[in-house]
Amino acid sequence: MDSFSTSSLSPYYHLIFTFLAFVISGLIFLFSKKNKSKKLNFPPGPPGWPVVGNLFQVARSGKPFFQYVRELRPKYGSIFTLRMGTRTMIIVSNADLVHEALVQKGQVFSSRPRENPTRTVFSCDKFTVNAAVYGPVWRSLRKNMVQNGLSSMKLKEFRAVRQTAMDKMIEKIRAEARENDGVVWVLKNARFAVFCILLSMCFGVEMDEKTIEAIDQMMKTILMVLDPRLDDYLPILSPFFSKQRKWAMDVRKQQIETIMPFIEKRKKILENPEFDKTAASFSYLDTLLDLKVEVGEKVVDEKDIQKMSYLNAVIKELLRKHPPTYFSLTHAVIEPATLGGYDIPTDANVEIFLPGISDDPKLWSEPEKFDPDRFFLGKEDADITGVSGVKMIPFGMGRRICPGLNMATVHVSLMLARLVQEFEWSVYPEKTRVDFSEKLEFTVQLSVTNENYHTP
Ligand code: HEM
User: Fold this and answer.
1) In terms of DSSP bridges, do strands 348-352 and 87-92 run parallel, antiparallel, or are they unpaired?
2) How many helices (H) and strands (E) does the chain have?
3) Enclosing H/E stretch for 233
4) Which residues is 330 bridged to in the sheet?
5) CA separation for the pair 256, 183 (Å, rounded)
6) Residues near 368 by Cβ (< 8 Å), separated by ≥ 6?
7) For ligand 1, what atom is nearest to the CA of residue 330?
8) For residues 302 and 414, what is the distance between their CA atoms, to the nearest angstrom?
9) What mean pLDDT is reported for the chain?
10) Mutate to test the pocket of ligand 1, among 402, 411, 413, 415 (most ligand atoms within 8 A of CB)
C-alpha cells in the first residue's frame, strides 16, 4: 500500500452519521458477499463493525496506517486481516511468508488489485508499469522500461546529468546557508536534484528551474489527489464526494496540459533536430565541460562509489532501518490462492509490511539500532533483492521488484557522498538530538527537516 494516510480520512469522519442511513443497503451487500466468502479461512484480525469492518477504527485512531499496523503485529502476528469497507487487506510482515508469496508463488502473487476510480484515471486504466495487472501488458511495459529506460547503459549515459544536478544542489545549499546563517532545508534541495535528473531522463528536453518546480508541485498535488478516500472503501458513499472527484479531474487536466507541450517538443526535435537550437545542442557532456571544478580535494565521482565501503554500509543500513516506504506496492493474486495456510481470494489486497522483515530480531542482531558497522565490519549482510534470502527488501522482491533499484541506489550514494564531502553537518537547533520520528508524505520522512551547516 503506497500512501494510505488516516489523516486524509478523518475530516470525513462526520459522514458516519450519513453513512448509517446506508447501513441497511450495505447489509444487503454484505449478505450477498457473505455467501461468497463465508467458507474462506482468512488470517485473524481485529474484530470490525458490520459492513465498514475496521475502516473507522483505522480512521478514528488518528494514526498513520503504518503505525496502526505496527501496533497490531504483537497481537495478531505476521499475517493478519483488516477489513476496510468493501476491501479486504491481508497484511504480511515476515520473511518466510513474503518468500512464499513473492518467490514460491510469485507467478500468482505478482498482480495488482483493482484501482479506485481516481487511480484508474491517473494510471490510464492500469496502463502503467506499476499499476498493470500481471500479464502481457505489464510484461511489455516493464520490459520496455528495464531495457530502454533504466538499463545500466542508459544509466551510464546520464552520468553528466547527475553530476550537474549534484553540483547545482551543492551550490544551492551553499547559497541558502550563506543567506540563512547556516540553516538549510536539505530535503527540498535533495528532492529538487533528483527531480531534475528524472525529468531530463524522461523528456530529453531542457527545462528551466521554474518549470521543474511547477512540475514537482503538480506531482505533489497528484499524490494528494490519489490519497485514499472514504468512498474508495465504501463506494456507496461516492455521491458525497463529487467535489473531490471534480478536484481530481481538474488536477488530471492540469497534468496533461503541463506535460503535453514537452512531449510535443520532443517529438518535433526527433523529427528535426534543427527545430530547437537549444535542444539540438543539448548535451550533458557540454554542461559537464562548462562545470567549474573546485580546486583542492577531488570531487567524489560516481565510479569511486563502489569502492566506498563505509558509504555503502551506511546506505544499506539506511534502507534497512529507515526504508522510504513501509509497504511494497499492493499485491493481488491472479487466482484464489493460499498463504501461510490461509485463503487469499482474488479481490484481497496483499500488503507487505517491510519493517516486519528488516526489524525482525530473528534475522538481525539489535535490529532497533542504527549501526552501519553491521555491514561495514561484515558482521551481518543481506541481499536487498531477496534472491539469496529475505532479510530486507526495501525495493520489494520477485517479479515486481522495483526496476529503479540501481538508479535509486546510484542517486542516494552520489548525493550522500557529495553532501558529506562538501559540508560539515550538525543538528539544528544546536545541541539537540536528531529526531527520528517519522511521518508519511507519500514516502516515509523524518518529521524534522532542518539541519545546520558549517563550512569545512
Ligand atoms: C530509494 C528509492 C526507491 C525505493 C525504496 C523503491 C521501492 C519500490 C518498491 C518497494 C516497489 C514495489 C515492489 C512490489 O510491488 O513488490 C517499487 C516498484 C516500482 N518502482 Fe521503485 N523504488 C525506488 C526508486 C525508484 C526509481 C528511481 C524508479 C524509476 C525511475 C522506480 C520505479 C518503480 C516502478 C516502475 C515500480 C513498479 C514495478 C512493477 O509494478 O512492475 N522506483 N519500488
Assistant:
1) parallel
2) 21, 10
3) helix 230-233
4) none
5) 37
6) 359
7) 15
8) 6
9) 83
10) 402
Tell me the residue type at 455: T
Which pLDDT band, with edges at 50, 70 and 90, does 52 fall under? very high
CA distance 89 to 72: 13
Which of 128, 384, 395, 413 for a ligand 1 pocket mutation test, highest count of atoms within 8 Å of Cβ? 395
pTM of the model: 0.74
Confidence of residue 445 (pLDDT cuts 50, 70, 90): low
The whole-number average pLDDT for the span 208-216 is: 92
- Segment 249-262 shows an average pLDDT of 92
What are 59's three cell numbers? 480512521
24 C-alpha vs ligand 1 centroid, how far in Å?
41
Residue among 291, 258, 269 nearest 161 (CA): 291
Mean pLDDT calculated for residue range 384-394: 95
The string of DSSP codes covering 198-218 is HHHHHH-S---HHHHHHHHHH
pLDDT-wise least confident of 17-31, 176-190, 198-212, 285-299: 285-299
**449 has pLDDT over 50:** no
End-to-end CA distance of the chain: give it in Å, rounded. 42
Q: Which of 115-119, 171-175, 400-404 has the lowest mean pLDDT?
A: 115-119
Task: Write out the H or E segment, with its range, that includes residue 357.
Answer: helix 355-358
Task: Pick the range with the lowest mean pLDDT from 125-139, 273-287, 309-323.
Answer: 273-287
**Residue 308 grid coordinates:** 566506498
Bridge partners (DSSP) listed for residue 349: 89
> Residue 363 in contact with residue 357, Cβ under 8 Å?
yes
Ramachandran class of 240: left when φ > 0, alpha when ψ lies in -120 to 50, beta otherwise: alpha
**Residue 190 parent element (H or E):** helix 186-203
Kindly tell me the sign of the dihedral angle through the C-alpha atoms of 78, 81, 84, 88. Answer: positive
Contact 92, 78 (CB under 8 A): yes
Q: Are 93 and 362 in contact (CB under 8 A)?
A: no
**Crossing angle between the packed helical segments 405-422 and 309-321, to the nearest 10 degrees:** 120
Selection from 222, 293, 227, 290 nearest residue 258 by Cα: 222
Pocket around ligand 1: residues whose beta carbon is below 6 Å from it?
Answer: 129-130, 142, 324-325, 328-329, 394-396, 400-404, 407-408, 412
